[in-house]
Fold Methionine aminopeptidase.
Amino acid sequence: MIELKSPEEIGRMAVTGHFVGELLAELKGVADVGVNLMDLEHYARRRIKERGAESCYWDYAPSFGRGPFRNVLCLSVNDAVLHGLPHSYVLRDGDLLSVDMAVGIDGWVADSAFSVVVGTPDQADLVLIECTEVALEAGIAAAVVGNKIGDISAAIGDTARRYGYGINGEFGGHGLGRTMHEAPHIANDGRPKRGMKLEAGLTIAIEPWFCADTDKIKFDKDGWTIRSANGCRTAHSEHTIAVTEAGPQVLTYRPGQGNRPALTHEDPAVTS
């Protein structure tokens, strides 16, 4: 069942989305060569606790994955693209990092992700990240009342093909609101004018992700981390949006990163 949200409920989701966008902007500023992934994880844990928010990832236990997910971030490096399990790894010059998070505040959820190269970027990595961002913008632009889900999917897929990347159809965007995953599924490729008609009040996460040289994936032994099948670089971008009569509303907008925040926290700097 798909629940259309009232303007007031979308406003409450926007409060959560504002925090998600703010925290992801902070994490983008913190991520750098020499930073351990667990430093990012513990930074996010502290900020979520301070805000009185609740991680949607903690204890998440879908059909895939080995046991419940006991972290608040998905941190995926280089050939890892989705559901990266935080672990003790120090970022190196040129690493491509994808950061994904979802939290709830007062019963309303928002979900977002970005990719960034730390240190010295390779141009091919920057183009791959750009493709996910352009595809995300195209998908959002298609999320208007009267269009169909296929219009969003087609806009994402057309962008990937224009850049020359393949498209994996196993994971994509989704509805959300009171929980992290709700109907409908938002594929990263599709045919225009197909699928469910978009109505005002629909809230969805649009999340294009692509691998540089393949459309195949594989899972790590941890059961969570998803990588490109051939070891090529990957990237992922995501926003939570609301379909409204006035047009698509991005609920997880990220402000400019500004000054780099400090990594100091009460948690141990590196733990498993």
